Amino acid sequence: MATSDRRLAAARPDLADERLRGTVQAERYVAGREARIVAPCAPLRRRPAPDAPLDTEALMGEPVRIFDERDGYAWAQLLQDGYVGYLPSSVLGAEAPAPTHRVRAVRTFVYPAPDLKTPPLSFLSLGAAVGASGEVERGYLPLAGGGYAWAAHLRPVSEREPDYVAVAERLLGAPYLWGGKSSLGIDCSGLVQLALAAAGIAAPRDSDMQEAGLGQPLPEGGSLARGDVVFWKGHVGLMLDGARLLHANGHHMAVAIEPLAEAESRIREGGGGPVTMRRRLPEHQRPRG
User: Per the record, where are the segments of Basic and acidic residues compositional bias (predicted)?
Assistant: First the structure.
């Protein structure tokens, strides 16, 4: 479905996705070509410049569709959530293997050999996806892109986490970063999206999209439970239980847990307004202990 939302519409005055032909005006249309993210974490920016606003990030293994590439940047769409923006060309690989495993640890290292004493080649963050090139060796999984990762920090991509709140809890203390979606820095909606994805639940990227599309609204004043999602204008968090909120926020500049009542009062007094929505996911998607 075509959208006028610039975050999700692969359309510029000079170029647009072939799939949007007839719904948007552009000088030309292209089908694009698919690739994958081959860096631990890749910035997707609003403009093709290193100082442009960071809209979101893509993690290792994430599929993208590239429509244009020049001057070291690719104009592309992330295929998991549809976000459109500019990625450094250096983070893209056309021949990257399909992922077989996903990182379940907060962060893990890639080593040149199955030996923890060797200097790491790089790191992988929670949610990153990699392809295996062989069987586990001395506790390490060989990766198709080179190197070895500790197998216990990974899970097959077919497996789903039973409790997305527990996934979000692993990121407690991770620093707040506007547009971030990794253990090195994450924002409120990135935390929700990443945690839900680990449980096999697709979610939009930004809080306004999540407020419009996740679960069903709860009546105002009704009781809350673990896994419920609470929204303000421009902010979102997950309920740890009936009273405590887990969220990445600019007050703590980190992922933190605090009483919902305290967060509500502080956000309102700080000019962020009242809670705008409380939503609950379907029963089959709710956290299971």
Answer: 280-289
From the number of C-beta atoms within 10 Å of its C-beta (0-12, 13-18, 19+), residue 237 rates as buried
Is 62 inside a domain boundary? yes
Q: List, edge to edge, every strand of the sheet that includes 154-156.
A: 129-130, 101-103, 154-156
Backbone angles phi, psi at 212, to 5 degrees: -80, -20
DSSP code of 27?
A: S
Whether residue 232 lies inside any domain: the answer is: yes
Q: State in Å, rounded, how far the first CA of the chain is from the last one.
A: 37
Backbone angles phi, psi at 167, to 5 degrees: -65, -45
Tokens 């506007």 identify what position? 178
Distance between CA atoms of residues 100 and 61, nearest Å: 10
pLDDT tens, residue by residue, 71-99: 999 999 999 999 999 999 999 998 888 99
Q: Which domain holds residue 143?
A: 101-156
